[in-house]
Amino acid sequence: MIERKQNKDEKQAELEKYRDLVLATLDYYLANKEKQIKTTDFDSVQHYKGLKKQTEEHYQKGRLTKLKQWFRDLTEIQIETIDLKFNEYLREKTNYDIDIFNSYFQRVDKVIGKGKITTDNQFYDLSIMVDQLCQREPVDNDKIEKINRLLREYEERKSRKIKKPTA
Length: 167
Hints:
Layout: H1 8-31, H2 44-60, H3 64-80, H4 84-94, H5 100-114, H6 120-135, H7 141-163
């Protein structure tokens, strides 16, 4: 399959989509008191407000990759905890037909199908999945073993890369 480059209109539409999704996610955090942390040296409300400003800057500068990564990072907890209210909130707030759980399961299935983890993000996704599988009844031991093997192999490859002396 040959992938083509996005034209300007497509990139602009995707930039707007991810800006809207990141901003909605930050609003979700701001609206939910249980998602907020305040200590003597950290205030999550101020942090989220700062991230909203940075999101607008990334949007203005056309940083689609950055916005996509932020959305992925900001939604990890909702995926981990299977926060279905969050998914509905995103749909209502942005009018995008999005299912963060569907894309998560697709990513996991793709890596399992490939039989190899190649990125830290994939490693993290599969780590979450194996944790979820261990807590579900009935336990899917075959899938857990498959994922654990992929995680182990990835960690072994990474540790070999780290141990290699550089010239």
